[in-house]
Amino acid sequence: MRFLDLAAGLMLPRQCEICGRDLLQGEETLCMHCVAALPVCHESEADLRASRITRHAPVVRVATWLSYTHDSDVARLIRRGKYNGRPDIFVALGRLLAGRLAADGVLDGIDALIPVPMHWFRRMRRGYNQAELLALAISRASGIPLLRGAVRASRSRRHQAGSNRDARAENARGRFRATRDLRGMHVAVVDDILTTGATVSGVIEALAPQSPRAISVITLAATRYA
Ligand SMILES: [Zn+2]
User: Fold this and answer.
1) What pLDDT digit, counting tens, does each position of 79-112 carry?
2) Beta strands of 122-203 (E only): which ranges?
3) What is the per-residue pLDDT across 26-63, written as a single tens digit (0 to 9) for each?
């Protein structure tokens, strides 16, 4: 065992986050049985788009991997990753997501990855932005550059849980500010969960005036749209 593997083995949990089984060499955070059993989102791209993604910009592709339902393994993993100081969960899920996207050809032609930003104060409190960890994992696996700071969250938002769709959309509008010329580029906006689409749409609307050639959306998981 190389020193780096040994060091990583000492730092990261060596049990599967879902079933608790000891991880084998090459497994990370989740065992391969639990990875294979993760529920995949089967909604069509048209359904993912419908009413969720803004039409005020040239959005060409919307891709997601997992189906997010309340009180599921996926929900527990994402909550633990966000609120229990476990960035390694997003690093591991990001690598798996990157493999999926590459296999499906979703990354073809994309020039840059733009994570949904977090307001600086929230990011400081959490210590990381999970969307950025996912985008970084995709970037490392694919070689597509990550554009940090291409869009900024300009003010803090009230917590979204429980607020209705209109309130979320209103909250997201004008919250993001793009800072960089994207002329001629096909950029992909990356986030952890696609719910109402208000957050991602807010980012897309902020990016549009920077004249990207095309915009795609990549998320780790999506809720069913009701
Ligand atoms: Zn497992």
Assistant:
1) 999 999 999 999 999 999 999 999 999 999 999 9
2) 151-153, 176-178, 186-194
3) 999 999 999 999 999 999 999 999 889 998 888 999 99
Only one residue has tokens 């959005």, namely 59
CA of 92 to the centre of ligand 1 (A): 13
218 CA to centre of ligand 1 in angstroms: 25
Domain boundaries, the chain: 1-37, 40-223
Give the distance, in angstroms, between the CA of residue 75 and the centroid of all CA atoms in the same chain: 14
Q: Which two tokens stand for residue 216?
A: 């795609």
Tens-digit pLDDT profile for residues 139-155: 999 999 999 889 999 76
Architecture of the 40-223 domain:
3-Layer(aba) Sandwich (3.40)
Q: Is the Cα dihedral 15, 33, 134, 103 positive or negative?
A: positive
Ligand 1 is an ion; residues with CB less than 5 A from it: 16, 18-19, 31, 34
CA 16–ligand 1 middle distance (angstroms): 5
